[in-house]
Amino acid sequence: MFSSSKNQPVIYAAGDKATVGPLVYNVTDTEVAEKLGDDPNNERTPQDRFYLVKVSISNSGSGDEPIPAMTLVDDGGHSYTELSDGTGVSNWLGVVRKVGPTQTEQGIVLFDAPTKHYRLRLNDAFDEKEIAIDVPLSFVHEQLRNVDTSQGASAPTELPLPKK
């Protein structure tokens, strides 16, 4: 009997470490945003939504390693590549990047994608087996940004979680 498990993706939970060669990835936070920037004259708006994924990438190897581009993949298999412009994103990881031996790089990778559930593909689409990290759909940061504190009301300490 033929088994297709060889081609099944390996998907790690957000917060778990995923290893691809000498690189060890970890998604430490995600944010969904309707715009970037605080200045109305210079704010950026996405086609759909901005997804800001905070990652930590460690190099367990003995030499410098390039950090390849990452891709958001929805449950239907549609892919969204990283944006090459990080304007308005503090701690943007950049496009041309590497990590030294025994070092860790941390930063934000930016995507423009519809509001859906995604996984962050860490390796090339042409690799035999996909390696990815689950990216939970969360609007917590968006809700916090939209809380009006101008009337002296304090921001809520807890936000209701979306109903499943």
Protein architecture, described:
With 164 residues, the chain is mainly β. It has one domain (9-142): Immunoglobulin-like. Helix content is 4%, strand content 35%. It contains 1 helix and 11 strands, in the order βββββββββββα. The chain is globular. 22% of the residues are buried.
What are the key terms here?
about 160 residues; mainly beta; five-stranded mixed beta sheet; about 35% strand
Sum this structure up briefly:
Helix content is 4%, strand content 35%. It has 164 residues and is mainly β. It has a single domain, classed as Immunoglobulin-like, CATH 2.60.40.
CATH names the topology as Immunoglobulin-like
Q: Any idea what the shape is?
A: globular
Work out the count of structural domains. Answer: 1
Share in helix: under 10%
Unreliable sequence segments: 146-164
Overall mean pLDDT:
83
